Amino acid sequence: MDEKRTVKTSKMLSRILRHDPGRAGITLDAAGWVRVDVLLAGLAARGTRLTRAELDHVVATNNKRRFAYSEDGLSIRASQGHTVAVDLGLAATEPPAVLFHGTATGNLGAIFRDGLLPMARQDVHLSADTETAVRVGSRHGRPVVLTVDAAAMAAAGHEFRISANGVWLTGAVPPEYLSRPQ
Predict the structure, then answer these.
(1) For a tag on the chain, would you pick the N or C end, based on fewer CB atoms within 10 A?
(2) CA–CA separation, 175 vs 182, rounded Å?
(3) What tens digit of pLDDT does each residue of 121-171 get?
(4) CB atoms within 10 A of CB 145
(5) Alpha helix ranges (H) inside 99-149
(6) Which of 151, 169, 149 is nearest to 160 (CA)?
(7) Which GO MF terms are attached to this record (predicted)?
(8) H helices present in the chain, as ranges
(9) Any idea of the CA torsion for 53, 58, 63, 67, to the nearest 10 degrees?
């Protein structure tokens, strides 16, 4: 599978497994899983032929590790970023003292007024390192990395979870926990 097709397939799978399972004629279970054979059949019925080997390649080579197989390898789901209601079953986890969020400069006014909100997604996504936050922020314009005082948030009762691909998730980040790194 060439790189161009791999990227195109990854984007398609993200859309289906995170936002629009009906696009492939599938239904996700409450935890976001769908059987691989059901996914592949749904795609084929809608004109997209994808083999299990090609799916394995997309999952294995995705640099953001967006997808995960079940322990038995029979089901697949997106690791996070859903706009459809799913419960990933992630346990509350003590976060590092500081986390980061990448955004574009044009969003700063609203963020410092309202905080970080999940918007259409189920959770706000945070990074453990600034490099990842810069990459995320770059998708939306000139990147700015915000520092999140995760220790203070946790002490105040905010819950954090970590996805299978290392993205930190929380319901929202109030503005008082945000700053710009010096």
Answers:
(1) C
(2) 17
(3) 899 999 999 999 999 889 878 899 999 999 999 999 999 999 988 999 999
(4) 19
(5) 108-114, 130-138
(6) 169
(7) transferase activity
(8) 3-14, 36-45, 52-61, 108-114, 130-138, 150-155
(9) -100
